Amino acid sequence: MSAFADTKRYLAGAVEPWLQRPVVRLQPLVATVGTPNVDLDALARQVEGVAVVLPPIAIRSAAHWTKTVLGLGKDVDAILPVSITSYPTEWWNSHPEPLVKRGLPFIFWPIIAYDEPDFWRWSATDMLKTVGVETHLVENTRAGLALLRALGMRRMLKGSKIVVFGGQNFPWNAHAAGRFVTGSLGTRIVVRTIEDIRRRAATVSDAAVRAYWAARKARYVERGVKPEELATAVRTTLAIRGILRKERALGFGLNCFGDLIPKGGRDVPCLAQTLLREEGYIASCDGDFLAMMSMVLTTYFLDKPTMMSNMYPLRYVGALTDHFGGNPLSPGRSHPRAEWRNLARLAHCSSVGVVSPEMTPEGKVELKDWGGTWEIKRDGRGCGNAGRLAAGEKITVIELKFDGKTLLVADGEVCETTDHKGMPHCERSALLRFRDLEAFVADISREHTVVVYGDHIPEFRVLAKTLGLTMKEF
User: Fold this and answer.
1) Would you tell me how many other CB atoms lie within 10 Å of the CB of residue 20?
2) What are phi and psi of 337, to 5 degrees?
């Protein structure tokens, strides 16, 4: 695994409790008194930081089994069955009814010494699933840790919130379609106005702005952003943070191109996105709550930084020529046209998108004036993000669809970050290679894609199954 694929998200300090994936609590139930077939101390070391293994309970009788299973508290996330090495059958085989009634996941952990599935549990797994028990026969430690993180996500998402600011006039209309995410995952989408931010920002003192920026500026390079625009960006950050704390929300998005920008506003939240990610929140462009949820499912599940941006397949030469003012952003000779069917650009607001510093080769992000588009010219106002992605890195690309139940996951890599001379509306973009871009686009939800370094398709298979999502791989 490369350094970037293994990069954890940067956190500037302790995060709010609702921004932490819960540590899963596993309750071992031992079939009878004796020597268990699972080394629970070794297991506790394997899952440290992701789960805690509670003191085991040895079952003495059928009545004790029933009472124990039904009496497990709401703080228990899953049952870990433990056998005693002998031929007598286990209580979960002879008396599965309490497991059905209690409704907790039942996890057969892999054989620790060999990191292999315990194939003697094939029949028990199928029987228990058939009678209605959520049963997992774990393939290996990697899959087991993914399952535990997924169970933590399931608990975290129940009753959670994200906040979108601005009018709901894009297809990602929270009033029209937010209920599907809530019904599927439990996360509420709260809609607030941009004025909510501005009113709160007006109360932030200059001293508070200076102190906050002094503490956080080390990962940023001021590359032409005006001091007053930088101050506005920091003031906007503090205002949004106050709202997120009040809502106890996981993160935010703001409808720039459907609300803020057309009305002449340039108090864009690009810097607010990266600064608040450093405080444990997720943040996405344009108030796209589905991109936000894709980031939630990635960041909190993998503990890794993510970014999102507009994705443009290179084969759409005519449409890209129109969009980028006469330049389709076609690559050079190193990427012949025969490869284009699996190549795409990432670009947003004159740059790659809002990239967090830890995702850049330099470990820093340049701050410039907001970049504009071909139609909306940059004018020196605003504070934009000009980060890069690392060339040669494997990536996983994620999109949650509008139904809240379908997760698209694509395999790819970063070819390069390209600087485009003489294009103030698109100074920089990232060139991506997909394993099967055509199939991905045939089922795509939106132009907004979420990117994380590394190959995480196996983990997302586990997450999707645990959350009841249909995953499509590309």
Assistant:
1) 13
2) -60, -30
